[in-house]
Structure formats: C-alpha cells, structure tokens
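Lab channel / #folding
Pinned by the channel admin:
"Please post every new chain as: sequence first, then the structure tokens as a reply. Keep commentary short and put observations after the output so the thread stays searchable."

First post following the new format, from NK:
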Amino acid sequence: MINPRSTVFFALSLIVIGLLLFIQENKSQVERHEIGNTSVNVVKINTQEHPEVFRYLGVGCILLGLVLAAMNLNIRGHANEKIEIKFTEREKEIVDAVKRGLTNKEIAQEMNLSLSTIKSHTNNIYKKVGINSRAKLIDYLKSKY
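Reply from TO:
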C-alpha cells in the first residue's frame, strides 16, 4: 500500500519542480575575447535551443502533481459517500456515554474501568472518525446518530 504522506510529498515536489521549470528564464552567457590590447565582451542571448520545452515540462509536472494530490485527498466525488465507521462494542458503549454528556472520568466510573483506558478508547474513536476533540465528536454524533 502506498503511504499517503509520501504521495502528498511527491505531488507537492512535482508542483514545485513544475513551477521552477515554468518560470525559468532564458539565461544569457557572457564571453570575454581578448585580441592584443583590445577586449570584447560577447553576450549570447537565448542559449537554450528550445526554451519552450521547459515550459511544457513545467506545466506537465504541475498537472501531474495536482492530479496526485487530488487522488490522495479524495476530491474526486467521494466526499458525499457515506462511510460506515465500525466501532468495537466497548467503543460503542463509550460513544453512547459521550452522547449522554458524560466526562471521561464519569464514563470510567460507570464502566468500572481506568481513566487511561477510557482515554485510549476515546482517542481510537477520534482517529476512526477523523477528528481531534470531544466537541467535534459530539457534533459528529449529532449529525450521524
């Protein structure tokens, strides 16, 4: 399985490389020629034979990076799909207690478990739902249940 973080990093790298290629300017070269007591500076402009190639490569890298990022972020129409989150039986009990407005300490006392066990289960629930706070969990539960 492909690591999502690696994919995002690769996509962003492609975008940056593409931007650098796209904005690359035609560099000029200066050559100094000396003939006796006289020296002449010759400026060679547009030393690249096909500068438009870099622009096309840049655009290609940018587009490829955007496509990879979009695929990784699931922006391709999957946002409206309902994803069923599977909680363990213990997590379901904790979700019900959270919906009733109990604190972790109250849940631990009610279930006769340690506070750290309840916190561990709560963090697992947060990860499954994709949130990071109790307030967001309560909002999520209100909208789904």
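NK: The chain has two domains: 4-72, 89-144.
TO: also worth noting, The longest helix spans residues 52-72.
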